[in-house]
Specification:
mainly alpha, about 75% helix
Length: about 260
Amino acid sequence: MNDIVIIALAGFTTGVTTVLFGFGGGFVVVPFVYQLLRRQPELAGNAMHIAVATSTAVMIFNAGWVSYRNWRAGKLSSQTLFPLLWFIAIGAFLGSWLAGMLSEGLVRALFILYMLVTIGDCLLRKGFFSGTAPRRLSPFITTGGGIAIGMIAALLGVGGSVMTVPLLRRHGYAMRDCISAANPLSLPVALCGAVMYAIIGWHSIPGSGFIGFISLKILCILILSGWAGIVFSRRAIPAVPDTLHARIYVLLLCLVFLAMLL
């Protein structure tokens, strides 16, 4: 029962962070699910793969619903999303395929390293907190950056927001616009990743209740509690000033990094 409550709280938090920061699931879900599964002997050897795969599947629902609401509200810019969306999809396919070939410990180590690099980049490079003059993404950034974002996001189950938000922020976008773009840009990662994890993990987990590496029980709890978090954040949490929004974003990254490290 305690495990269900913990997963539900993680799902609710995921719903809130999806709206406020564009985190479709990974940065909150992966550490909690990993810690719960590694205590179960029959699943401990695949705990990280299950956590990442289930997190990736959750992003389909969270990021998809928020993206739909933002599209209905006219908050999405096709000029920002395309063609970055397609290159992220290519990278997501490659990253998901690569994840099935890596060991449990290596995926966890990559997750921690990636968090450390991202936090350091936001803190040490100028422009993330204060913003810069708006400018368009170059073709090189769109192509190479899109593929890199998709690969890393799908490999680690973190969604694209932790890379797309700093990328767009450094190109002069306000935090609210970065977050609005982050959710639809996470969808190709979620869709490609979920399909690949279902395929490469087929019959890898003993017993029922899994589609490949995706845990159906955990997925259902996260979707329902995540939806509650999305509704709550839209109705109860007021708009956050831009600079404060950026600082909270980095603080949240630090908390998840510590949770996964310790």
